[in-house]
Amino acid sequence: MGRFAWVKGNERGLMKRISLFTVFVIFLFSCQNGNGVPVKLQTKSVSDITPETESSEDPEPDLEQNTENISDSEQEEPKKMREWTFMIYMACDNSLESYGLQDLNEMEAGIINDDQLSVIAFVDRHPGFDRTNGDWDSARVYEIRNDSNGNDKTLVSERKASSELDIYLQSETELDSSKSGTLKNFIEYCRREYEAENYALFLWGIGSGWKGNCYDGTSNSIMPISELGDILKLYTPNFLVLDTDLGMSFETIYEFKDLSMTVAGFSGINQGSCINYETFLKRFCESDRSSAALTNTLLDYSDSNICVMETAAIKILSDKLETLGKSLSEYIDTKERQKYVMNDFLTNMILYKSSSYPCDGYIDALDMAYYLQYYEDTDVSLSAGELYDSISEAVVGKGSASLSIHIIPFISVNVPDQMHSENYVSNEKKKDRKCSFVNDSLYWCPTEKDQSFLDALFYRVLN
User: Fold this and answer.
1) Are 308 and 298 in contact (CB under 8 A)?
2) Which of 23, 214, 284, 457 is 20 to 30 A off residue 416, Cα-Cα?
3) Full-prediction pTM beyond 0.70?
4) Around Cβ 323, how many Cβ atoms within 10 Å?
5) CB-CB neighbours of 371 under 10 Å
6) Cα–Cα nearest to 455, from 415, 416, 424
7) Helices of type H across 31-170
C-alpha cells in the first residue's frame, strides 16, 4: 500500500506537470500570427488567460483611447485667431512723405498692444521730402507698437522682414509702390504672418480718381484702378479704406461692384492727412471691435469728411448715374441750354480740383443731383431725384456723404481744357482702358458717338 500510494502520488504529480506543459504550449501558439511570427501581447489579453496578480510595472497605454476620457486641463486648446489685421499700404514715395511719417507716429500713439489686433504698415519713402527717422529712402515693413511717449515724431515700431517683398533687416530694398504686384505681395505677407478673422486694407497716398492710386514719385507712375480691382478680387478684405484723394469717385468704386466688402474714403481732394490715426486707433481698440465700430470710429475721427458704403450698392448707383447722363444728353439740344448747363456745372455746383495745374475736375455727385432736381425738364428732374435718393441711402458720412465724378480737366484756375484725355473716352473698339467705368459707360463718358452727357456738354455743335 505504501509503494502503491507513492506511485499513485508520483502519477498525480506527473499528470500535473503534463497539464502545465500543455497549457504553456497552447499559450506560446496563441502568441504567434499565422506566419509563426510572435505578436506583441496586450496587457488586457494576458489578464484574460492568467490569474489577476499585482504587478510593479505599469501596463502599456492604449494609444487609441477616446480623447473624451482626457480631462479638459490635459487637452491643448487651439490657438485663438486674432480679431483684426489692419494692412496699411503707405505709398509715401512722393511729396506726402512727411504726412506719412506723421500718420505712423499717430498710429504708435493710438494703438493698444494686444494679441487681437495687428497693425502692419508697408512704408515706401522718397529720398527728397523728409529727413527724419534715419532718412531712409527705401521700402520697409513695420508692426506698429505703442509708443509710451505718445506722438513724439520718433518711430519705435518693430521692423519686419518679408520674403514675399524681398525686404530684409540687414539691407534696404527699393520697391515701386505703384506696382500692383507690390501690393499683392504685401497682402500675402500679412495674411500669412498675421492670420485673422477680419482684414482691413488701408491704401494711403496720392489718388487720381479714374487714373489710379498710390502714385510713386521715384518711378513717376501710378497704380491703375483696374489693377487694384484685380488684386482685391484675389484677396477681398472685409473693409477697404481709401485714404487718398478722390477715393470715393464713381470711377474708383465701380471697380469693386462685384465684390462684397465695406468701402470708406474721400470723395474730394484733401491736402495732407485725412484720418486722425491716433484717436481713431485708440477709440477702436476701446470698442467692441466690430465692423460697425470700425465704421463709426472712422466717421468720428477723420479730419476731413470721410464716406462709407457697402459695395452691394455700387451697381445701382452707377445705373442711376447713367440714366441721368442720358436725360441730360437729350435735354441739351440748343446752344442756349448747353451754355446754361455748362455754367451750372462749372460755377454753381461743388467742384473738386487740385491747387496745381493742369488737373482733373470732379463734380460732387450728391450736390449735382440735388441741383438738377429743380430743372424744368421732367426726365432730368426725376432721374436726378432718384440718384440723389440712392446716394443718400447708400453712403453715410459725418457731414455731407457723397461721391464724385469726373467732369473735365482744367489747365488753370476756372479754365477748363478743350478736351478730355483719350483714355477717358468710352470706345467699344478699345476696351483695354485701365478703368472699367470708362469701358462700360454709355451716357456719361465721351463716346465719339454724340450720345453721352459729356458729348453733349463739351463737343456737340449746336445752333
Assistant:
1) yes
2) 214
3) yes
4) 17
5) 18
6) 424
7) 43-49, 97-110
The number of beta carbons lying within 10 Å of the beta carbon of residue 419 is 13
CB-CB contact of 323 with 379 (8 Å) = no
103-132 tens-digit pLDDT = 999 999 999 999 999 999 999 999 888 878
**Distance from C-alpha of 372 to C-alpha of 348, rounded to nearest angstrom:** 11
* pLDDT band, very low/low/confident/very high, at 395 (cuts 50, 70, 90): very high
- Judged by average pLDDT, the poorest of 233-237, 384-388, 395-399 is 395-399
Backbone Cα Rg of the chain: 36
Torsion angle of alpha carbons 334, 452, 349, 352, nearest 10°?
Answer: -140
DSSP string computed for 318-387: HHHHHHHHHHHHHH--SHHHHHHHHHIIIIIS-EE--SSSSEEEEEEHHHHHHHHTT-SSHHHHHHHHHH
- Reading the block at residue 255, the C-alpha cell is 471697380
Rounded Cα distance, 354 and 375, in Å: 29
With contact defined as beta carbons under 8 Å apart, do 75 and 67 qualify? yes
* C-alpha distance from residue 179 to each of 176, 224, 231, 248 (Å): 6, 9, 11, 21
Check the CA dihedral 432-433-434-436 and report its sign: negative
- C-alpha–C-alpha distance, residues 171 and 429, integer Å: 47
330-358: per-residue pLDDT in tens? Answer: 999 999 999 999 999 999 999 999 888 99
**What are the two backbone dihedrals, phi and then psi, of residue 408, each rounded to the nearest 5 degrees?**
-170, 145
How far is the C-alpha of 457 from the C-alpha of 362, rounded, in Å?
A: 15
Residue 6 parent element (H or E): helix 2-30
Question: Cα–Cα distance between 112 and 144 in angstroms, integer?
Answer: 10
Matching residue, cell 470708362 = 438
| pLDDT, tens only, 417-435 | 999 999 999 876 666 667 9
SS3 288: coil
Residue 404 parent element (H or E): strand 404-412
Whether 290 contacts 280, CB under 8 Å: no
**Cα separation values, 185 from 93, 170, 180, 211, Å:** 18, 20, 9, 22
Q: Is-contact 139 214, C-beta < 8 A?
A: no
388 has a pLDDT exceeding 90: yes
* Beta-carbon contacts of residue 386 (< 8 Å; ≥ 6 apart): 320, 323, 324
